[in-house]
Amino acid sequence: MDTRILIVESGNLFTKLLRNHKSTKEWKIYRAYTLKEILHCLGGAIIDVILLNLVELKQNGILILKKILKLSIPVITINSGNQLSLSIEGMKLGVFDDFLMPLNLDALLDRIDEASKAKIKAKQKFPLMERIQSTLVAATYAEAGEAEIARVFLKDNNVKEERRIS
Length: 166
What we know:
Layout: E1 4-8, H1 13-20, E2 28-32, H2 35-44, E3 49-53, H3 54-57, H4 59-69, E4 75-79, H5 84-93, E5 97-100, H6 105-124, H7 128-143, H8 147-156
Parallel strand pairs: 1-2, 1-3, 3-4, 4-5
Helix pairs in contact: 2-8, 4-5, 7-8
């Protein structure tokens, strides 16, 4: 099974780096920058891991991180040494891992694989009560006008979305 990765960055640095690396040829790589683009991508594809470039996004990256961590997708942040407070805040929020620039590409690739496997393992153990809870959370987001986030919750938990006929 292909690993599906969403890279959140304004440039194409990590996107090009991963696409050109020989061991990632079987991966499907998506790129987004704004929260709207991220939600659009998450609504169109099931993502296994998100790489979030805090070097570019700075404090906005933490705001984005808070939104996407609610979706139960492992997030790996990439940061620079002069923004350690963002790395610490991300770890407190529950990121899967944090890498500082310059990064060890092989270590990053290993952690992406581990994060993908952890998501698959967690999904296999997803009990009925948690699926019901996720459906209720999706309904709450839908009622609050956050249809994109609601769709991601439903899609990620293999819940079919019912459409109203009016």
